[in-house]
Amino acid sequence: MVVFDLGKPFPLHNKANGSEFCRCQLTDSFFNICYYLPNPSEQDIKAWRSGPIEYGIFESQNIPFFLTSFKMGRTQWVFDVTINVHLIADDMADIWLNTEGQNVLLFLINGHTNILESFRLIRLQKADANKIKDVCVAQDYAYENATAVDLTITKITNSLTIGDMVSRVKMREVKN
Predict the structure, then answer these.
(1) Which pLDDT tens digit goes with each residue over 112-151?
(2) Rounded Cα gap, residues 168 and 176, in angstroms
(3) How far apart are CA 140 and CA 104, in angstroms?
(4) I need a labelling partner for 51 at 20 to 30 A (CA). Which of 15, 67, 108, 120 fits?
(5) What backbone phi and psi angles, to 5 degrees, belong to 75?
(6) Would the pTM of this model clear 0.85, i.e. be above it?
């Protein structure tokens, strides 16, 4: 059993390299978002823990982009993660694609120290969780391997900003 303790090293992996980045990790309950932020401020931690949050799903070329937006006063903190179903073994992908999971666990991790600063659980609407899985099924058939998906992700992110993606989807407020 994995235990997550605030103020302690993140127990699943240590990807802290001093830079800001976000990664997706598929799980039995759906997926985790691991956001590495160098030197997160108290405002960042507070927003992550309890601030207003919205999510949206942008799809392009059989790739789901999960968009997350935290409202911090007059500003918004918006980021995305992509889901590459080819990163898990074929037998596990079939299981994941057929689960009823709707939970997304968001981890805020210090990008320098690998210390878990905050975490939050959100539950997606069932239709949204199913949409992500349906896009991933199409992705599984459309792409030969994880590298092919990653190349397409790079092309999409080079042609669209996160703001462009957010403007094209309906963002949903998460109810606590």
Answers:
(1) 999 999 999 999 999 999 999 999 999 999 999 999 999 9
(2) 25
(3) 21
(4) 15
(5) -105, 165
(6) yes
